[in-house]
Amino acid sequence: MSEPEPAEWEAELRRNREEKDDFFAEHPQSPIPPEHRDDFDGLDYFDPNPEFRVEAEVTVHDDPEPIEMETTNGPPARYLRVATFAFELRGEDCELHAYRQETGEDDPLFVPFRDKTTGQQSYAGGRYMEFEPEGELEDGDTVTLDFNLAYSPFCAFSETFACPLPPEENWLEVVVPAGEKTPDLGND
Prior knowledge:
This protein is α+β, with helices and mostly antiparallel strands. About 15% of the residues lie in helices and about 30% in strands. The protein has helices at about 5-25, 35; strands spanning about 55-70, 75-90, 90-100, 110-115, 125-130, 140-145.
């Protein structure tokens, strides 16, 4: 897979953000409570920054270990740790684990994380990324993780959702000012 040109990548990222804002503003399944939709004028994002598109080396877990993740509202959620991504970010060696629900064989990989913006510039419960591998991942593969695509879970918008919280093994010790910022629903 060839990397998109910087201008092309940024334009696509901005298009995705516009589509998401439209969905959140108008769709019946939007996580924005109906009473806040009229005032909703789009999510708040960090500026697109190619520094937060990182090359990561993959380790595949052939016998995935089950992990229970606490949730914001309800019983723990059970996931399988299926892969580990090792990468360098802002001069630090980092690792994030990717998960899949036991029944979600064809689902994208779920990569929840916290970083040094969590609870300050980004949602206090952490943020998510999804990773859709092109084909079967193998040990030693190199993939691109794009933190510009990091998003807040639905529970950041409404307490009616139960969202998995990133396990401690996915807490990064670096500042990642990329992706979605803390949602502002005008209720402060």
